[in-house]
């Protein structure tokens, strides 16, 4: 399809930028997660988060160089073994990301809705690492099936990526395409259901907390423990990451079923789906970076500080009618007048002001200004409002 090949030809800048964004972002995310507090390092949830960041980094560093090399030399992906390897990478890292995000949702569900089972199973960092190893081994075997003869990989019409032959009429190859799509759909649905269950459980606990009286060991104490800053951050990371991963993976899953069961093939839609899926490793790490507890605390403190400054300015600013009583040039007096104000301030205020006005020590505007109790600053000396009547 030479016409299609020319029409979708893309500059090499795009894959290079995507490669740089995915590699740098995931490296920063891994560093941020590695220098976190000890309790976060030992939690199963953040072990899965680090596993997802490492998976995205590996996928970016392995698949993107092949794509860039193919832009430089269109013969790279025409090699059968290279094309099979590129197809394996796309299959494996696409499915592994969905599996890890589903495992993150399951971990939060067990921790919040089934705490006894969570403790009995001993879900911790080591448990999460073993589960990640299980995901990698099982997915490597499953994604190697096309290279074992169950299906075939082919260069897609755009000439920039390889994937399974999802338009074949062979029953075994079609069965693998459907199986891959079905597993992806189950992972997507499982993640959505678990996230809804976690959010629903938290809302239900909150509703019970409001309705029941406060007693020792009541539901309110459990809610306060579950709605702590760390728990809130975990839920925020989970929901946001799930939305990004599912949003980026769903179009490719839809195209898998569409190419298996539809006769008209939309190659441009296939290319758009794989590009959206390739954006997932770029977006994921910035969720971990931006949704940090320290950043939450800083934003909260900045907002509180800004509101307190605004309130103090409003409370300390004098009313508009009184502010205009004295012109700016009359709000300063010389040192002799300042000394006289200091020595005579023990007198009664009306008598002091009247004598100052009659003797010409102070202008009429200053007398009026002091009579109404405004603050006066002159050469470092501030007349306090304690001299008001």
UniProtKB/TrEMBL annotation:
SUPFAM superfamilies listed in its UniProt record: Family A G protein-coupled receptor-like (SSF81321)
Superkingdom: Eukaryota
Gene Ontology MF term list: prostaglandin E receptor activity
Any single GO CC term annotated in Swiss-Prot or TrEMBL for this entry: plasma membrane
Chief location of this protein within or outside the cell: membrane
Compartments it resides in: Cell membrane
Segments traversing the membrane: 12-35, 47-68, 88-110, 131-151, 178-204, 225-252, 272-291, 351-372
Family the UniProt entry places it in: Belongs to the G-protein coupled receptor 1 family.
Annotated PANTHER family: G-PROTEIN COUPLED RECEPTOR FAMILY 1 MEMBER, G-PROTEIN COUPLED RECEPTORS FAMILY 1 PROFILE DOMAIN-CONTAINING PROTEIN
Name this protein carries in UniProt: G-protein coupled receptors family 1 profile domain-containing protein
Species assigned in the record: Labrus bergylta
